[in-house]
Write a structure and sequence with these properties.
binds ligand C2E; Four Helix Bundle (Hemerythrin (Met), subunit A); 701 residues; five-stranded mixed beta sheet; 23 helices
Length: 701
Amino acid sequence: MTRYRLLSTIKSRIIFALGIGAVTTITIGLFGTFSVSRMSTDVHGMYSENTVQLAKLSNVTIALLNSRATLRRLQATRLAADVERFAPGIRADLDMADREWASYYPADVHDGRERELAGRLDALIAQNRRYADQAVAAFTASNFDAAAAALNGGAEVAAALTWVLREDVALRLQQAKAASDESTSTASRISAISVVLVVVNLLIAAAVSVAILRSILGPLKRAVGMANNIASGKLENRLTVDSRDEIGQLFAAMKKMERQLRQMIYHDPLTSLPNRVLFNERLKQTVAGPADPDALLGVMMIDMDRFKGVNDTMGHAAGDELLSEAAERLTVCIRPGDTVARLGGDEFAVLLPNVQDRRILDDIARRIIARFDERFALNGREVFVTCSIGISLYPVDSIEPDDLLKYADSAMYLAKRSGRRGFRYYSKELTEDAAKRLALESELRRAVERGELELHYQPKVSFPHHEVVGSEALLRWRRAGVGLVPPNDFIPVAEETGLIVDMGNWVLREACRAAAEWNAGGEALHKVSVNLSARQFESHDLVSVVGAILDETGCRPEWLELEITESLLLEEDGAILTTLSAFRAMGLSIAIDDFGTGYSSLSYLARFPIDTLKIDKSFVQKAATDRRHAELVKAILSIARCLGQEVVAEGVETAEQAVFLRQNGCQVAQGFLFSRPLPKPDMASLPRRFAPAEPSELASR
Ligand SMILES: Nc1nc2c(ncn2[C@@H]2O[C@@H]3COP(=O)(O)O[C@H]4[C@@H](O)[C@H](n5cnc6c(=O)[nH]c(N)nc65)O[C@@H]4COP(=O)(O)O[C@H]3[C@H]2O)c(=O)[nH]1
């Protein structure tokens, strides 16, 4: 721990290594300097001990020799003048010999041998001095015999002195050699220690370098491994780096990057829910994992009804808000351990493992639907968006994850087709249906090019004289090998796939051509009505497309009526109002189809530019026999009258129904009582006015 705190960065470790290098180098340097200085002190000592002492000894010797030589000269000349002249010199030599000896003697006595030689020399020098002093005194007194005797005594002392001096010099030389040998061996020791120190220094430097390299390279290798794993898409790495140094920081950053990448790859950025990739992985893991044999696994597909409308009309920001809110609502409906994912667009999925009872799934699905029933507040506006749910079960429907998803999707489409805002379970028949729908879809795509579409027209007659005032264009598909397919069998598929937009344009063009043809005579007006699908309103150029078709076919706007469904007006959406207002401004009339079957709010009748209400055939057909329905039809007629709208009764099959409608102020009727939808050529043979029909005539029409 301490090590990590002290050497927690690469920088500090390198500084530490350099510090160790510097300390060891300085140590070696100091050691060398100290050793050299010690050696120089030793050499200096040797010099002072031996050389200087020898010089003193030689000075003593020279002084003694000088004094003796001068004394001998005095003895040879025996002149008083010489005695007077040389006696001070002799004394001076002797004094100098004493001085030199005095400085020699105490300075350097090491051992017994030296002491012995020094003692002998000291005694001999003193003796010599005494003889020399006696001789000088004898010469001064001109007592030459006494002088000779003193000289002779001195000669013996000088001889002995010479021997002792030789011995002392030899001893000194021996000591000098020993000191020199000592210095040489010290130098060798220093050099050996220096070598050892250098080696130790190198070993320490190597050990520190290896430790530092290992502390860098190990984590660095793991960091590189981590980077490579991330680069190859492996985002569940167990590699770790504990250090807090620069590599540790790099590793921590890569871990963070890995987490963020995982978030990006496995989660939807808008809702933060798991995305399709993660959902599929979890589904596969759950299916592959140990399973409770009594438990089911549920897969739910959830699609928001009318999401596209919100997105297109209120903008993508509102669409995003809706999706985020939907994600939150879904999340609170599930159990802990379930997974909600956004698969894309408005498509959500829920993975529900360990379902002991199917009723649990029913409850969750109901809870989700109820949650979606609550209003969504987007940009300060209230929006109602329901949802449709499809459910598949493991292992009942399949044990394959892909199938489970596909089946839940099919069930979800079934829920949509069954009126939306509900849930459906997958069943085998759905797969067959789906296969049929797929075949239908691919054939339908080619139906327009192959010219397999036909328009039939069902006449509308006015009360009371049953004059033909217009017709409704109804699409048919003459499918190869099948025959005439009614629109209810293929229009839902065309709407789901978006094919309805091209088909609708084809219908508009054909209907406009027919209207232009039938109104060419200019006698009585024949208004052709065309059904428009909600999907056609989603394309933003609908108004210009209709305008272009009118121009192209020569159809005047007053010859065309556009039929829309009530549900389109429930969108509460400015774009629909704008489009309808544009149609109104062009001179087209707008009719509400299947009026009464939609939702209860009637306020749209005042808000939208509506010319005609088409009472749904279910009301019309029951009105003649059921009092309540009769009252409803009367109420609709009354509302339309108040709002200045025309009413067309659909599905009139009996004379009683026609009479009831006429008596209650309905202006126009349409139904098998007068005519079934007819191919265009047959329209030419229609009578201008239908005779009031008797019920018995119905079968023949
Ligand atoms: N039982 C009974 N039925 C009667 C009677 N009189 C008319 N009908 C049928 O009622 C439907 C009236 O059309 P719709 O309500 O607009 O309902 C239409 C309309 O919603 C849709 N549709 C038809 N053609 C087109 C089209 O070109 N575009 C779009 N978007 N939808 C179309 O398909 C629906 C069904 O069309 P069809 O099968 O042609 O069915 C027609 C017509 O044949 C009657 O007396 N008794």
